[in-house]
Amino acid sequence: MARQNNKKKSPMALFLLAFAAIAILMFIVNYRSVLVQKLPSPEGGAEKLSTYGEKLIAISVNNEIHSWVWDDLSERPQISSVKAQKVVAMSSDRLLCILPGANNLLILSNLKGDKELGRLPLGMNKECKFLQASPNGKFAAAALAPAPVFRQEDAGGDSDKKVQLVIIDPDLTSIRPIETKTMEEGLKLNDVGVSNDGSLIAAVGRGDKGWLFVAGANDKQLLWEHYIEDCNELNKVVFSLDGQTIYASESGRYVYIFDIVAKKLVKRLEMDKYKTPPNNPQTISCIALSPDGRLLAAASSPNSRVWIWDVKTGEKIVTIGTGQFSTCSIAFSPDSFLLAGTSLGNKPVKIWRISK
User: Fold this and answer.
1) pLDDT at residue 280, as a whole number
2) What's the pTM?
3) Is 41 exposed, middle or buried (0-12, 13-18, 19+ CB in 10 A)?
4) Residue 90: inside a domain, yes or no?
5) For position 2, what pLDDT does the model report?
6) Nearest to residue 238, comparing CAs of 333, 132, 143?
């Protein structure tokens, strides 16, 4: 009887032992990552982090906005909230929003969200799928699709597969539509990006292969595209500061570097591979470029770590153990010496020091 009780207890003992080992490992990883500060996240957990000027801006899933000054993160953040379907932070203490019930109307406001600075319609029967700011926060890119069809007689055809990309200027006085390919069946758009001068827009997605295409604002059409043979999905994209390079991550563990002028893939940055449950594979959840343009960071889930590389040499600078299940957004400090990271679910915004 005692032997049977011991057998019943052994699974629990193994579970506790495994839990303790994971806790110790997470402690060690966090210690090595040089965690320097924790900041209270907005209500609902920060979904997006941005650095513009001297400010770190966090936007929650509930569109509550916290902003800190990087030079003194110990000060209480400025807190505001906006009612919007989508919102992104812009430079010069501004927000770009799409209001509830008005999916085709852009609103530019101050960072507090209490003063409208401009508005611009995106077009009739349009629905904004993606809204992203350029690395310097001056321009924005949006992906527009036809609004959902409500009448049965309007259903059918391929209109719901057509996605149009637009570049939005800093003062919200005009949008520049880009003629792009029809999103064919089985081809999915995952992210868009725009260069700092607003002259180029890029999009990445999923199909039989991972794909990237780049379009110009002046000629308003596709310039070139590239397919990655050994992956079926690219999920994040960002331009270099000079607009000559594109960084695009796949859903696995690689970040691809493309030369825009040469129109080709020039380098691949690689994360370490680790074991994951079959139903939760290793995935790059977000990428960010440092303000000096020298470093690229990418976060990986579910064993949440952040890899940072020197983009010129491809050398790995540091690997940060975040101590959380998933990191959904990262942002560098203005001097590129610190990195902020956040996870959903009312988790704190963590600040790490980067060894350089």
Assistant:
1) 77
2) 0.84
3) buried
4) yes
5) 46
6) 132
| Residue 56: CB atoms within 10 Å | 26
Range of the domain at 237: 82-150+158-270
For residue 263, being part of any structural domain is answered with: yes
How many whole angstroms separate alpha carbon 135 and alpha carbon 52? Answer: 9
Please check whether residue 302 is in contact with residue 286, taking contact to mean a CB–CB distance below 8 angstroms: no
Pick the closest to residue 341 from 301, 294, 309, 293 (CA basis): 301
Residue 258 lies inside a defined structural domain of this protein: yes
CATH number at residue 172: 2.130.10.10
By three-state DSSP, how is residue 23 classified? Answer: helix
φ and ψ of 285, to 5 deg = -95, -25
Mind listing the pLDDT tens digit for each residue in 38-52? 999 888 888 999 999
Residue-wise pLDDT tens digits, 217-228: 888 878 888 999
Low-confidence ranges of the chain (pLDDT < 50): 1-9, 15-16, 18-32, 149-160
Domain count, the chain: 1
29 within some domain: no
